[in-house]
Amino acid sequence: AQSIYLHFLHTSENNFNHSYPLIIYELSSTVETVSHFPEIEDGECAFPFHYKNGTYYDCIKSKSRHRWCSLNETYEGYWKYCSAEDFASCVFPFWYRRLIYWDCTDHGEAFGKKWCSLTKNFNKDRIWKYCE
């Protein structure tokens, strides 16, 4: 880690000026640099995609007013705002607990809302969304 120092000036009774270092915070030795290009409207979302420290199976709303997706499996600055056809689709059939589901289910959902898996094996991947 690299320390950042700020100096402040202290005047003593004898009018001698002394500069003292004050450590404000430390920076990590690795800095992430990613270029961000203008939106590519006719691009195709790449699901799942990796962005920062996460893996995303659907459009995300990160540092944006609208949901967007990466056009690469690992975000490289190429992106687009999601339209209705870009949002992730349910994967059928999917395996949840000991059953195979061919449609959205409310099984295991505390509020009774229907949901589906975004992968074939919910038990392993735990990736899901509410059904509309």
What topology does this entry show?
Blueprint: E1 2-11, E2 17-27, E3 49-51, E4 54-56, E5 68-70, E6 79-81, E7 94-96, E8 99-101, E9 115-117, H1 122-125, E10 128-130
InterPro entries: FN_type2_dom (IPR000562), FN_type2_sf (IPR036943), Kringle-like (IPR013806), SP_Capacitation_Regulator (IPR051666)
Disulfide bonds: 90-116, 104-131
Family: Belongs to the seminal plasma protein family.
Structure report:
Helix content is 3%, strand content 34%. The two termini are 47 Å apart. The strands form five sheets. A two-stranded antiparallel ribbon has the order 1-2. The model is unreliable at 1-12 and 14-33 (pLDDT under 50). The protein has 132 residues and is mainly β. The chain is elongated, with a radius of gyration of 24 Å. The chain contains one helix and ten strands. It has a domain at 94-130: Ribbon (Seminal Fluid Protein  PDC-109 (Domain B)). This is Binder of sperm protein homolog 1. Its main location: secreted. One of its GO terms (molecular function) is heparin binding.
